[in-house]
User: Fold this.
Amino acid sequence: MKYFLDTANIEYIKYAIDYFPIEGITTNPTIIAKENREFVDLIKEIREVIGEALLLHIQVVSNKAEDMAEEGMKIVEKFGKNTCIKIPVTKEGLKAIKILNSKEIKVTATAIFTAQQALMAAKAGATYVAPYVNRIDNLSSDGCSVVGNIVKQFKEYNLKTNVIAASFKNVQQVHSVANLGAHAATVNSELFEKIFAHPFTDASVEQFEEDWKKVYGDKVIKDMI
Assistant:
């Protein structure tokens, strides 16, 4: 499963790219607006930080299909071919996905709450579909089960569209979608480091250090070889 970071905060992106196996950045209008910066300058800086190899997701803000498609084409022209245009799965959005797919532009179908929405978006040509796990849970449904159903349908119908699960509030949700075969998960900065952290790991490291120092003091291996 690929890990995407759901943020537009430059400092955290720099930090995360340095330490973790990040394969791309996802944003949306809310995340962009949170940074309170000029849009083009912010996106250009994100692209400079992550380089051309990593995938950058940017969402359109228009509501009509032709306007969405035009926005998407201009975004890719400005920020590079390895930019994925996020399109909500409305009626107009599905039409926009078809248009962008015909131009060989990557699309993430977003704001997905049902497996049928995901299937329709995949048939329209979406590169990724983004089901909102926790928001589905908050509607008294099961977000992880929806992700599992989407993965199953894509396999059943031999669709190449990938599932990028989104909207998480806890590590268990991320763990569950990984077990269900999601191709990717996009996680915000607050949750990301909790994915790998464990108090017993920290305790083990402390024990290793304590046992080492009893015999070797503050010496480290690189200075002993």
Q: What stands out?
A: The CA atoms of residues 116 and 150 lie 8 Å apart. The chain has one domain: 2-197.
